[in-house]
Design brief:
With 171 residues, this protein is α/β, with parallel strands linked by helices. It contains five helices and seven strands.
Length: 171
């Protein structure tokens, strides 16, 4: 009698890491680590929700080290002088960020990546472009064996309670 051994895959989510800094653009260590992880064979998604200037957007995602997908919003506030932003410009920028967030939600639920970094996601929440409840729900229902890294300058308490690791970067 041959006994069949059934293997069952255990699905477990990775950790949530939150990095806070007093100023924007201070997360070079996270970008460095994402490159290293990609070079080591992990599939990494780096999304800069509030950065622009490169006009990447989802269709023009950059691939680095074969395993790192780097996406920036196709339109962002930092591409304009504050005096040049009117309601149409603001609506266009917000729609671009929402489109990128919808893409991120699908990826967080897909299990496709080993690590997902959502850079400046808390600024999008603070500006009410992304709903706090939507972010919480997506994180609670995520399916990713690796870690999710969230960054921002101001972190709502709800998220601090969800974090497995919280790091405050000082200048």
């Amino acid at each position: 009698n041959k006994k069949e051994l059934k293997l069952r895959k255990i699905n477990q989510n990775g950790q949530i890491h939150i990095y806070q800094s007093s100023y924007r653009g201070s997360y070079s260590t996270i970008i460095r680590d994402s490159l290293r992880n990609a070079a080591l064979g992990r599939k990494v998604l780096l999304v800069q929700l509030m950065k622009g200037g490169v006009k990447q957007g989802i269709p023009n995602a950059q691939k680095l080290c074969g395993n790192l997908t780097w996406i920036r919003s196709s339109n962002s506030y930092d591409q304009y002088e504050s005096d040049d932003i009117n309601s149409n410009t603001s609506k266009s920028i917000n729609n671009s960020i929402i489109e990128l967030w919808d893409f991120c939600k699908k990826e967080l639920l897909s299990g496709e990546y080993d690590q997902i970094i959502l850079d400046e996601v808390f600024l999008a929440v603070e500006m009410k472009i992304i709903s706090k409840d939507d972010l919480i729900s997506t994180l609670e229902n995520r399916y990713i064996s690796g870690d999710v890294i969230l960054t921002g300058t101001s972190i709502p308490n709800n998220f601090l309670l969800m974090a497995d690791q919280f790091t405050e970067l000082r200048s």
